[in-house]
Amino acid sequence: MTxxxxxxxxxxxxxxxxSVGIIRLSxxxxxxxxxxxxxxxxxxxxxxxxxxxxxxxxxxxxGLAIFFQAPNSYTGEDVLELQCHGSSAALGVLLxxxxxxxxxxxxxLAQPGEFTERAFLNGKIDLAQAEAIADLIDASSSLAAKSAxxxxxxxxxxxxxxxxxxxxxxxxxxxxxxxxxxxxIDFIKQHDVINRLNNILSSIRDVKKAAQQGAIIRDGLxxxxxxxxxVGKSSLMNALAxxxxxxxxxxxxxxxxxxxxxVQIDGIxxxxxxxxxxxxxxxxxxxxxxxxxxxxxxxxxxxxxxMDATHGAHVSETDKLLIHRIQQVCSKQxxxxxxxxxxxxxxxxxxxIDEEIYVSAKTGQGLDDLKKExxxxxxxxxxxxxxxxxxxxxxxxLLEAESHITEALKLLLKEAQFIDLAAEExxxxxxxxxxxxxxxxxxxxxxxxxxxxxxxx
Length: 457
Known about the structure:
- This protein is of the alpha/beta class.
- It folds into 3 domains: 8-126, 2-Layer Sandwich (Gyrase A, domain 2); 142-216 and 391-438, Four Helix Bundle (Hemerythrin (Met), subunit A) (Up-down Bundle), CATH 1.20.120; 220-378, 3-Layer(aba) Sandwich (Rossmann fold).
- It has helices at residues 30-38, 88-101, 114-121, 127-138, 142-153, 155-179, 187-190, 193-219, 233-241, 284-298, 317-329, 367-378, 392-412, 419-437, 445-450; strands spanning 8-11, 21-26, 47-53, 59-68, 79-84, 108-109, 221-227, 259-265, 268-274, 302-308, 336-341, 357-358.
- It has a 6-stranded mixed sheet with strand order 3-4-5-2-1-6, with helices on one face. Strands 8-9-7-10-11-12 form a 6-stranded mixed sheet, with helices on both faces.
- The longest helix is centred in the middle third of the chain and has 27 residues, at 193-219.
């Protein structure tokens, strides 16, 4: 059953010049407000050409008005969409006029994500689908957009619903064994609960792998380039980006501040951070840049430690100290990959250690191997099941469900006295999975999720 809340309004299109701009209204009072604004009764789901005039009947703009009657709308409430020219000034004037007309109905500006939140609360979409809308808007690659679109269609949610229904059934059978001991019926054995629970566990693990791949598509990997001055960090960044995004000179200390660029490798976003060369310096500006370098290292998913191959394929004492310092600075176990640059200047290439990477940022030699290595470190598996543009909370919920089901299986394989504990573990697994689609929600989760949306959604 849908519920009409106080009416809200927002500009639903991005800021800036455009051929078309959209203003969206939703909630109780939108129907009479649409009559006052458009001076006629709109036919639901039909576009009507309207001249929008202000309170003095002077023209604001001309455009289309479309009324969607509840519950057949995006939010499940009465919705009015005004499509006019995409001038920021014209949209602002029309928005102000709507707010004045809507005063008797309590019309107000929408909060971030409030339209989508109402769609969720009115049962038009579940929470995973709501998040997919934001992910589709923010998608930085075609792969991310396709994955978000699949989640929006409900493919991820359908898998979770199957797990939930199966868990509810198995919980009922497990608890029946406890509730009717006098019947001398072992519902667990009779209905093959253990094998069916094992099948659910296996399926959850498959979905978890797909979700972890989706998290890589969505968030990418933050890679920080570090090393002594003039080892070619900026040149490598330019080579990976495919354009001159960083200044390159022979002067040590050219890079004074960190520079970030996102590149796509096989559809995976990699956030490359070029940093100031790490060395002792009396230059106050360069010192600030070096301090920011250490800050970037703390936030990295991977550190590429560049060294100059022309100085010999051995790690200098200075670089050993840098590696030790990096490991101390990192708050988590961040992998540090050694990269030898400038191999184009060597007469012959002799790899000291096969695991290390040898490149020429100038000629591009070895870059393909570096890109493959970066994807491998990110955990990207092209052959893995895709289609789930997962968030951190989804993966955490799947991990919790996996843990609870694993524990339930251990308890069921023990003596009968542990059946009640196994049933409780199944309930906790069910609760964890239900958080993904929003069937079970902590009080503060909704506000946290929808606060990240843009205003018009």
